[in-house]
Amino acid sequence: MKEKTYIEADGREGTPVGIEDLKFDDRGLIPAIVQDADTKQVLTLAYMNAESLRRTLAIGQTVFWSRSRQEYWHKGETSGNFQHVTRIIADCDRDALVVLVHPDGPACHLGTVSCFNYPVREEETK
């Protein structure tokens, strides 16, 4: 991915949306849904701040903000399972992102392709 300073806006293909146009929450974060660019499988949900988004755009690999560790998290830095970004799309409200990637391996820290593996029951457990 070439370095970009904009995000594509959903609904208006190719219309540039600057990082400054995104709506970060009161903690300075925006949810980023990471999706396999080929299969369209949802891999994970993570959070970015403006700086992690800048880093992602600069290096072409996902960089998130870890809410639990309070630090930048370059996906793959320790596991080798990098996510190579092909496209980033902002939603209509500009308060969420879809990040399309070519993953080098599993997205989940449990070793599964996706972090989404647990169907929700139809009835409540008593």
UniProtKB/TrEMBL annotation:
Specify the pathway.
Answer: Amino-acid biosynthesis; L-histidine biosynthesis; L-histidine from 5-phospho-alpha-D-ribose 1-diphosphate: step 2/9; Amino-acid biosynthesis; L-histidine biosynthesis; L-histidine from 5-phospho-alpha-D-ribose 1-diphosphate: step 3/9
GO terms, molecular function: magnesium ion binding; phosphoribosyl-AMP cyclohydrolase activity; phosphoribosyl-ATP diphosphatase activity; zinc ion binding
Which GO biological process entries does UniProt record here?
L-histidine biosynthetic process
- Please provide, in alphabetical order, the Gene Ontology terms of the cellular component aspect for this entry: cytoplasm
Q: What class of enzyme is it?
A: hydrolase
Q: Where does Zn(2+) bind?
A: 92, 108, 115
Question: Is the keyword Repressor in the record?
Answer: no
NCBIfam families associated with the record: PRK00051.1 (NF000768)
Q: What is this protein called?
A: Phosphoribosyl-AMP cyclohydrolase
Q: Which organism is it from?
A: Eubacterium pyruvativorans
Gene name tied to this protein: hisI
